[in-house]
Amino acid sequence: MIVYQPVPLNRVQLGREFPVDVWSSDGRLLLRRGQVLQSESHRDMLAMHKACMTESDAIAWQKSLERTMRRMRASGVDMLTIAAAPMPSDILDHDYMEGTQVKGDWLDLQEILRGLLYQGTDAIMPIVRLEGIAQKVTSLLKTDPDDSLFVLFQALPDLNQGYCATHALLCAAVCMLTMQKLEQPEDSIDTLLRAALLMNIGMAQSQDHMARQHKPPNKQQRQIIDEHPPISTNILGSFGLNDDVLLHLVQWHHAPGAAPMHNEHATPLHLLHLADCQIAKLASRASRPALSALRAAQSLVLTSPSQTTEMNSALVAVLSFYPPGTYVQLANGETAVVIQRGLRANAPHVASIINASGMPLSKYIYHDTSDTHAPQYAVRSPLPNQTVRCLVNLEKIRRLRGVAIR
Predict the structure, then answer these.
(1) Disulfide-capable partner of 192 in 211, 268, 311, 332 (CB 3.0 to 4.6 Å)?
(2) pTM for the full model?
(3) Cα–Cα distance for residue pair 129/110, rounded to 1 Å
(4) Phi-psi category of 303—alpha, beta or left, where left has phi over 0 and alpha has psi -120 to 50?
């Protein structure tokens, strides 16, 4: 049986060729690949017949679009223009061979997820793409959780890369790692992971815009923030997602206390809310600096109800006081980047990248801040990322971790 997917007619430019065969919903061929969208009335006619394409064509066309978006990004095109990019009129052979598997690392995932979040109801094959992203997230986290947190926390301050996708990936990572620490069922972890990736799809572009503006959200923007959970839920419903638990998590992630009583969903829902709030606190905006993970953890412990104590402790243990990818000042005055969580939340493994005189180090130096025989390498305080004027070389960090930490 042939599976058809809707053609995103509103993203096809007039005068451009269709690189796929276009079918009606009942299987009649409407246009052959290579034929052109001639006019708005032509577009309306195709919409009336519910223009579709085969699943393999849909996947390949989306791959071609993602390649176009990467090329635009590399050329310095702004994200809103990239998000509104029309569907390309060509599909390469290897777009079909790549299939649905997501390749690359966290930054590739960030770009792919941002495209899905920005496209919303116009997304092609959203459920298939979500599964590819979720499977890749799970694989990367299982391979090396500290490296995963390092890359994501390094990306979090870069608002030009798009805050909405980085926030979603970090929330998903924190939720998965915390649920595992709480020994929750695998199917519950999988559902929560997907909810974290998609919970803000109803305000993705607005979220990125607000992160870059120099003023706090205005009244209209506050309304967008308040109303996005049901909007996100409706978008996911339009995708054909019929997972009631996932939709419940997205619907109530801003107000878990107001959710209908579902005791079996209480832990993932409250955790999603906590992760969403904590990552938001740890992210800098153009209008305000980030809160340190240490301060955020202290705030979490002091303000949360007693019934969430176990969950709070697990979340703090996952993030630690100094998450990988964030910066600290050592007792000897050196600036270091955290490269791995330690056995204690306040004693991470770090790499000195700037000496006490403020000069960047060409060779990073590893320190275990829990070593009581070397108090000069203990953590003195967290450092805001904007105060560190030094780019961190990821490959150097990975080599150092491989040699120093057993």
Answers:
(1) 268
(2) 0.83
(3) 13
(4) alpha
